[in-house]
User: What shape does this take?
Amino acid sequence: MPEERIAAGNSIGGALTAFRERVNQPGTIFSTDHWLLPKLDQLRQLLTNPITQEEAEALLDVLYQRHWMADLIAWLESRRPVNWADFFIYRENLAKEELRKRADERDRRRAAGLDPDFNFKLFPDEYFPKISDICPDCGSSHWKPIAYGLPTEDTEEDARRGHVVLGGCMLGDAKRYCVACFNSWPTKPDVSKPAGRPEWIQQQIADSRVEYAHLSALADSPPAPEEPVVERAWARIDRSVRFLVSFGDNKTIVTKNLGYFRLGGAPTYNPGFLSWCTYDESRRLSTLAAVVAIRFERTHQPERHNLYNDWGKVQAHQREFDRDSNEESFCREWVQKRRKKLIELLKLARAIPERLPSVISTRSFDRDKKFLVRFPWGIVGVERQRFSLLEPLEYRCTSSCTRDEDPELAQNLACAAAMLAEFPRLEDADRHLLRAKEAE
Ligand SMILES: [Zn+2]
Assistant: This one.
């Protein structure tokens, strides 16, 4: 039995040999020598000789798959801050402590007006549409950013601390969540047709009429004493209406949708998830919420803030973004710029060849070249870049030439000199330009 050979007072060598013999047996860990031998070497360095009672227990825990080998090595390598039996709770607490510290640090950075995670801006402000700082429905400024995706432990902690709300794994359009009325924005107006097979949609249309008749009849009867109340209601651009319904301590939103109504059915009243009650209870309360919404509608006009939940802003921003990032027009603009510059340099080289400085060195880097040019007042560099074989070459002086009385002219003269060094016959430069033009 391995218990006899992996026991307090036995030598490391004996215990580890027993361990190796017992792997891949019923009830023990699966292992290969390729994986196991380096681990045993590590253990040989870390265990005491002869092994202690605690070490023996830990080895048997790993052998019988009660704990991982990695845990045992972590315990030994961390110099056994606590007993093996307490190590797991200890490590868990340590991780919690780390999590808390990181969250505290993010809190501190938020309080100082910094991004909680980054020292630099990942995206400039213009990258995002400027959406409303107050809720487009209710006007509250009490909102939280929505974090999408599978949350990390850190994001979960931030959500617990109330810095973000978790938006689930499906990436949505909405960036902000209103704490007062559960609205999120920006959102696209819902004007799409209901999806599904035609027969199914016909069934839904019929069902919507039945359901609406049922709810209307309930709304006709006098209100029950403990009914919820509609606090406020908002109309949306897509003609849907949201009702904020209060059950005393708890609130929910009922959304009136017109998807089936547009196809000849009736409006549907859809309450949000009632997280505080059981399934049966929530069915009863959902019906009540829909009934009070219908009754409210008969006597009140929903508020209209006419902000379209910021969708217009998002679209305008997107249009501008698309225009700015249109690669084709961007490239064309640059090609034209380079051609203009090259024509200017050619003119200069022809008009005042005597004023061109002398090129004292030329070096090639892959497709590009670097020149050193000597003026009476000093030496400056010129870089020549070729972006593609079909585009005009670009010469750029790397010095600001402020020591010259006309820095801009000096830069152009330096570039012209470099061009002349590359095309000793200016007609070749003309030909290069012509070729680039034809390719366009
Ligand atoms: Zn709101």
